[in-house]
Amino acid sequence: MPLAFAPGYPPSPTGLLARFLPPLGEGVAAHSIEQQTAPGDLVLDPFGQSPRVAVEALSLGRRVVVANFNPISRLALSLAVRPPTAAELRSALTQLGDIPIEADRLETYVRGLYATRCADCGQAVSADSFEWDGDQAIEKIYFCPQCGGPPRRHPTDNADRERAHHFKHSGPDYYILLDRVTALNDPDRAHAEEALAVYPARALTAIATTLLKLDVLHPSSETRRLLSGLLVAAFETVTRLGPERPKALSAPRRFIEHNFWLMLENAVGRLAGQPVPDQSCALAELLTRPVGIYAHAGPVREVAAQLPPGVCHLMLSAFPRPSPAYWALSAVWAAWLWGRDSATALRSVLRRRRYDWAWQAEALEKTLASILPLLDADGMMIGLLTEAEPGFVAASLTAADRAGYRLRDAVLQADTLEAHCVWERATESPPMLVERRLTESLQASALETLRARGEPSRWNIPHFAAWRVVAEQRLLAALPAEPLSRVAEALETVTHDTNTFQRLDAEPGDDPTTGWWFVASEAGLPLALSDRVEAFVLKRLADGDAVDEHDLVRETCAAFPGAQTPGRAVALACLNSYAQKLESGQWQLRPEEASAARAQESQSIQAKLRALATRQGLAVAGANPQEWRDESGQTLYLFAIITSAVFSTQVFAPVSPAQRRFVVLPGGRAGLAGFKLRRDPRLRAAMLAGRWAFLKFRHVRRMVADLFLTRTTLEPAFGADPVEEVKQLRLEIKN
């Protein structure tokens, strides 16, 4: 049976380094660990990109080996597997804040760097943040103890702007921080300067002052660990990079300058958790314990040399992808906290300006080949790919195939860009006669996937299907050179065969990610995947029991595995259309959605439409669909009455001539109908070609109640309660 996608709970967007670490959902790693291992088994995370893998493995009583050469990532791992309490973090921060500086406390001094005055009462306060446009601070946000109330937002005054420009990227604090990263004559100094440029000058003063005082604090190792976590959280927040996941060290023109000390305080909530025993140990000790974790400060190949062959049944990791911004900032942060030598392994990333997918595939291949001997004969490696865009997928599959692994199965949830790949040891040699087999496999897999879904799909779906099958057949290992480019070229040739595939909402020459892909011949296709998911969700809700949103998404993915895996948004759109959210957070079928109630309502709407036609002097033919005919027998209107949002059968089916056609549906189904139109160009085209429009049940009732409605006002009355999501479509129909 095809692999079913196992969704996780969405990760917290406010966790430590959430902007930079893979957004791996909660429970994803645990699902694989429970399925493939027993308590006491050894789980190897060769890349150590997401602390969640180790956290969930430990919670299930497994032994864990994690390798990561990035000291900042290892700090995040330490804080995740052994989280401090809020009280411990506040105590550590108080120790730091109490250090004297210029006859004051460090906390007071740093807060004073952001001094301003309340625009209402004039009291001196410390701003929470300043908003900048270019080189000007234009607004300030602050809390005034005297005025009370919520934080206030006001334009900056002259004193605010003068104070802001007092801080420079050329002052002593700037050079203190730069020197902590690179020496004066170091060729990497220019690259370190680029990293420091993403910080407001005032933040660099706050950071330099805090670090100098930390150097004289001489805290215990545990306090140092907690303060390092708080500082990294603040380092991350006070950059000018904005809230999104940064791909490069490029600061926007408009940005928010946050108060550094306030960010240290806010970090307490981000890092705090429930205390657990320290289960870290040396590698040799781990091999004799029933549970524990060894975090290696270096590449995994060093660990592989110390472990016996076949020691591991499961390798599980969030695969890494190029992250120049994070790697460069990690080198800077590590040097700030622990000195230049701590960032030695990261120095190369300060120099590298470009990471392409061929480089990524080669780097992954070397790592995966080094750990292959650790996998036992029946063991497997599972790669969790977040942000699984086509290039990342191609690089990961290529690397594993050429490193000696055979892809057993892989599944993609397209809208969340998450892929799960399962490999085993390759026991056979790569095949011969690659070129012809490659083309045939690419075409067959992409075609089969699109037909199985029964609806147009974005590029990442046929792309993933095509790459999956060539990896399963080990064709990537068989290609002598440049597998990424050769497969990409072959796939482009295959998919541009108009006898096999059709491209929708795109122009010739557009990037393949533009528009939608579908099969050229639509004969014998199943019902569209979104329609099948709707039927499944309704059936799941029909027993009346409350359902958990996450459970429903998981069950939907299990019901439609492999190539049919639906997007999370599809399941949630169906859920919102039929169910109501309870105070418990669960969902339950709305009373009016019960099958008997909807059937009765459908009959009622048919009768009301018939009565409305009779009142206008029009003849009625048929029940459902219902036709309205004028005195000459010409069909003016056709009404197809449905209680679901499965309207594709109506708009695609040949129907008798009519000037206008309506899909008549409950108002609660309008949002789902609009959702389907947005993701299926064929439906939109069919609606336009057939002059179809939507008519809600409730609007039929209003029209029946309007005793002044005439044939003259009938046409505009039909459009008085449009489906909001398809308002533009309705305008196109009228034009």
Short description:
With 735 residues, the protein is of the alpha/beta class.
Overall description:
The strands form 7 sheets. The chain has a 7-stranded mixed β-sheet with strand order 11-2-1-12-13-15-14, sandwiched between helices. A 5-stranded mixed β-sheet has the order 20-21-22-23-24. A hairpin with a 2-residue loop joins strand 7 and strand 8. The C terminus is likely disordered. The protein is globular, with a radius of gyration of 31 Å. It is built from 31 helices and 24 strands. It has 4 domains: 234 residues, Rossmann fold; 146 residues, no CATH class; 61 residues; 140 residues, Roll (Restriction endonuclease-like alpha-beta roll fold). The protein has 735 residues and is of the alpha/beta class. The two termini are 49 Å apart.
List the helices and strands and how they pair.
Blueprint: H1 28-36, E1 42-45, H2 51-59, E2 63-67, H3 71-81, H4 86-97, E3 100-101, E4 104-105, H5 106-112, E5 115-117, E6 124-126, E7 129-133, E8 136-142, E9 152-155, H6 158-166, H7 172-181, H8 189-196, H9 201-217, H10 221-237, E10 254-258, H11 260-271, H12 283-286, E11 292-296, H13 300-304, E12 312-318, H14 324-338, H15 347-351, H16 357-371, E13 375-386, H17 390-402, E14 405-413, E15 418-425, H18 434-453, H19 460-472, H20 475-478, H21 483-495, E16 501-504, E17 516-519, H22 529-541, H23 549-559, H24 568-578, E18 579-581, E19 587-589, H25 595-615, E20 619-621, E21 626-629, E22 635-641, H26 648-652, E23 660-665, H27 670-678, H28 681-689, E24 692-696, H29 697-705, H30 711-718, H31 727-734
Parallel strand pairs: 1-2, 1-12, 2-11, 12-13, 22-23, 23-24
Antiparallel strand pairs: 3-4, 5-6, 7-8, 7-10, 8-9, 13-15, 14-15, 16-17, 18-19, 20-21, 21-22
Helix pairs in contact: 1-2, 2-3, 3-10, 4-10, 4-11, 7-8, 7-9, 10-11, 16-17, 17-19, 18-19, 18-21, 22-24, 23-24, 24-27, 25-29
